[in-house]
Write a structure and sequence with these properties.
25% helix; 9 strands; seven-stranded mixed beta sheet; alpha/beta; two-stranded antiparallel sheet; 36% strand
Length: 174
């Protein structure tokens, strides 16, 4: 049987020269790869107690939703600014290639909720840091950040000091 890493396609010089893009769509396109990805993330939860899974648009939806479903927990989407219909709060952050702004519904996190954030990738840590800010602003407590792939060379984990960070696959460079 293949390992999860075998399903990740590495694309050199995308989206710009010198970057190695780790494509998770190749994981999603294979039933065994998808199964390994979800199982790998599930293992990282361990016996951690939580109330809500939060996932950023769009691949955080893909990987977070089955975990929320498996644990009979709520799933809360974090979206790009202007995409959520109800009252929101927002946070700006820096990406590997620029800046962005994300939002969450004010009603989605209740004071005292224990939250696990699930995403496909930890690169510079900007998205995760912004989501943590939003969750905490609403009174939630982040009890974990889980990702399928961590690009260790971009040092995103350093922005998340004090929070449990778990990744299924680690790549040393970008």
């Amino acid at each position: 049987m293949k390992k999860l890493e075998d399903y990740v396609v590495s694309i050199p010089d995308f989206p710009q020269e010198g970057i190695i893009f780790r494509d998770v769509t190749s994981v999603l396109e294979n039933a065994d790869g998808l199964h390994l990805a979800i199982d790998g993330l599930e293992e990282k939860i361990g016996d951690r107690e939580f109330d809500v899974i939060v996932g950023p648009e769009s691949r955080g939806f893909i990987f977070g939703m089955p975990i929320a479903y498996n644990h009979h927990k709520a799933f809360v989407p974090v979206r790009k600014k202007g995409k959520l219909p109800c009252e929101t709060i927002s946070a700006s952050y820096e990406l590997e290639y620029g800046t962005a702004e994300i939002e969450i519904h004010k009603r989605s996190i209740k004071p005292g909720d224990k939250v696990i954030i699930v995403d496909d990738l930890l690169a510079t840590g900007g998205t995760a840091e912004a989501i943590i800010k939003l969750v905490e602003e609403l009174g939630g407590e982040v009890v974990g950040f889980l990702c399928l792939i961590e690009l260790e060379g971009l040092k995103g984990r350093s922005k998340l000091e004090g929070y449990p960070v778990e990744s299924v696959i680690q790549y040393p460079g970008n």
